[in-house]
Amino acid sequence: MPEIGLQLYTLRELMEQDFIGTLKKVAKIGYQAVEFHHFGGMTAKELRGVVDDLGLKPLSSHVALDRLEHELEQVISESVELGLEYVVCPWLPESRRETPEAIASLASVLEKIGARCQEAGLQFAYHNHDFEFAKVGDEFALDVLFANTSANHVQAELDLYWIKRAGQDPVAYIQKYKNRCDLLHVKDMSAKDGSFDTVGQGVLPWPDIFAAAEQAGAKWYIVEQDVCPGDPLESIQTSLQFLLQQR
């Protein structure tokens, strides 16, 4: 079974109040690794000391496309110093994805970013939402993007909730990008209203997802719940317990 990490965006409000204290709680709950969306005002070196002391693996970080395009060497330097394995592009402005020409241009940019990351010993990945399932020509933008980039330079960090939200089958997408989806964002969908839910508490077909993920060579399940109606710490603990029960 893939290892288990946490996207810290789930705890963003708590981290604004106490960044290091919240990391301590994540470690106490039992997570092995974390995916960052910012460094809490610390340098990469300072943050590396914190996570090392807590026994947390600094696995990956979401980095805005603008920084990847204009500050790539700084991003790489920070990522290497922090000890990350993956750098992930998490979002696209609409202008970069609305036409075949825009997608082709974007694919070229991501390919170059991924090649440079690989030279530095990092793996680059792209994280989807649901907007990539708009058609560009006869295909979904996400599929066009991956078809025009190489698997070794641009991994697919598949977000299973957003695939489901777009009306597509998460299992089929894991199978489609076999050996290209090291990282899977795991979150669930409420049966009541389609909102975000704790892993194992919603409608996603987890037994089928687990089987497909193992066959596809996924390495990490990264828990994320974009919005938690209750205590986010309880949510991430329940999600972790559910995933651990599958071992």
From TrEMBL:
Coiled coil: none
Keywords of this entry: Isomerase
A GO MF term: isomerase activity
Highest taxon of source: Bacteria
Transmembrane regions: none
Annotated ranges, domain Xylose isomerase-like TIM barrel: 23-244
Keyword Isomerase assigned: yes
Protein name: Sugar phosphate isomerase/epimerase family protein
